[in-house]
């Protein structure tokens, strides 16, 4: 799969994982297949999929972080491309949610993590901060 496949999948429609119980089911489903790229946005893009043990360990710790830092009765920060057979998952950082739907007029924030079958592309390069936002940010320090 090429980098274009990853970006096409990234921009496609997604379903929200609204309940914590649904997230538990998703983790079980993902653990049945050990061929996943796990990409933490802002870190180097992974070159290989994680081993089954590495993936299970990563999911265990990510789940713990999400539940501790998103202290809501619902999940609502995980999105999947297909309900029955997901191949792309976006997970938003509970500490950087912004307006993920983009209704505020600003572009939605990048997710904190993606889990995908396709080899990831650098999302910070593919979706850079708009020049207007950069100019505003730079003006604060000039």
Fold and architecture overview:
It is built from five helices and five strands, in the order H-E-H-E-H-E-E-E-H-H. The mean pLDDT is 84. The chain is α+β, with helices and mostly antiparallel strands. 21% of the residues are buried. It has a five-stranded antiparallel beta sheet. Helices cover 37% and strands 13% of the residues. The protein has one domain (3-139). Strand 3 (78-80) and strand 4 (88-91) form a beta hairpin. The longest helix is centred in the middle third of the chain and has 18 residues, at 52-69. The protein has helices at 3-11, 20-31, 52-69, 123-126, 131-139, and strands at residues 15-17, 37-40, 78-80, 88-91, 113-116.
Fraction in beta strands? 5-15%
Order of strands side by side in the largest beta sheet?
Answer: 1-3-4-5-2
Low-confidence parts: none
Shape: globular
Q: Could you describe the largest sheet, including whether it forms a barrel?
A: 5 strands, antiparallel
Number of folding domains? Answer: 1
User: Nearest-angstrom radius of gyration?
Assistant: 16 Å
What is the β-strand count? 5
Mean pLDDT: 84
Q: Assembly state here?
A: single chain
Order of helices and strands: HEHEHEEEHH
Q: Which structural category do the helix and sheet elements fall into?
A: alpha+beta
**Number of DSSP helical runs:** 5
End-to-end separation in angstroms reads 44 Å
- Percent helix, as a range, is 25-40%
């Amino acid at each position: 799969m090429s980098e274009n496949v990853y970006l096409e999948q990234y921009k496609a429609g997604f379903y929200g994982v609204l309940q914590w119980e649904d997230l538990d089911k998703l983790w079980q489903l993902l653990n049945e297949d050990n061929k996943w790229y796990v990409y933490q946005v802002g870190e180097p893009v992974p070159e290989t999929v994680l081993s089954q043990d590495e993936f299970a360990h990563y999911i265990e710790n990510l789940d713990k972080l999400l539940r501790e830092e998103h202290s809501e009765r619902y999940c609502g920060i995980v999105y999947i491309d297909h309900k029955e057979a997901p191949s792309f998952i976006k997970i938003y950082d509970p500490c950087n949610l912004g307006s993920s739907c983009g209704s505020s007029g600003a572009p939605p924030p990048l997710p904190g993590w993606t889990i995908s079958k396709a080899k990831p592309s650098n999302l910070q390069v593919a979706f850079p901060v708009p020049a207007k936002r950069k100019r505003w940010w730079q003006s604060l320090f000039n």
